[in-house]
Write a structure and sequence with these properties.
The chain has 99 residues and is of the alpha+beta class. The chain contains three helices and four strands, in the order E-H-E-H-E-E-H. It starts with a strand and ends in a 5-residue tail after the last helix.
Length: 99
C-alpha cells in the first residue's frame, strides 16, 4: 500500500521549447516514476516533502516519486532540465540548435 506520492516539474518546462543539441529536433517531456521503500536513499526527503514534517501514524509504506526529463524523439537522447538550461544558453549564443 502506498503511503504517498510526489511530483515535481519545473514551470519553464511547461512553457518553453527546448531543442536537442545533437540533432536540433524539439525535445519532449518524459515522465520518470520510481517507488522508494523505507531505507532507500532519498526516502526520508520525499517523505518530509509529502507530509510536511507532521507526525502521521502509518506513513512507513513505499512512496511514489515522479520527476520529468527531456527526451529527443529523433535520436533518443535523454537530458535533465538543469543540463538543458545550460545547453539552451549555449545554443542561443551560437545561434544554432546543433552544437
Amino acid at each position: 500500500m502506498k503511503s504517498g506520492a510526489t511530483v515535481s516539474i519545473p514551470v519553464a518546462m511547461l512553457f518553453k521549447k527546448y531543442y536537442c543539441h545533437k540533432c536540433g529536433k524539439l525535445l519532449k517531456r518524459q515522465k520518470v516514476t520510481e517507488a522508494l521503500n523505507p531505507g532507500d536513499p532519498g526516502y526520508e526527503a520525499a517523505k518530509d516533502q509529502i507530509f510536511d514534517n507532521h507526525m502521521i501514524v502509518g506513513t512507513r509504506g513505499p512512496i511514489s516519486v515522479t520527476h520529468y526529463v527531456l527526451q529527443c524523439a529523433a535520436c533518443n537522447t535523454t537530458i535533465t532540465f538543469d543540463e538543458q538550461e545550460d545547453i539552451a544558453v549555449k545554443q542561443k549564443y551560437a545561434k544554432s540548435r546543433i552544437l
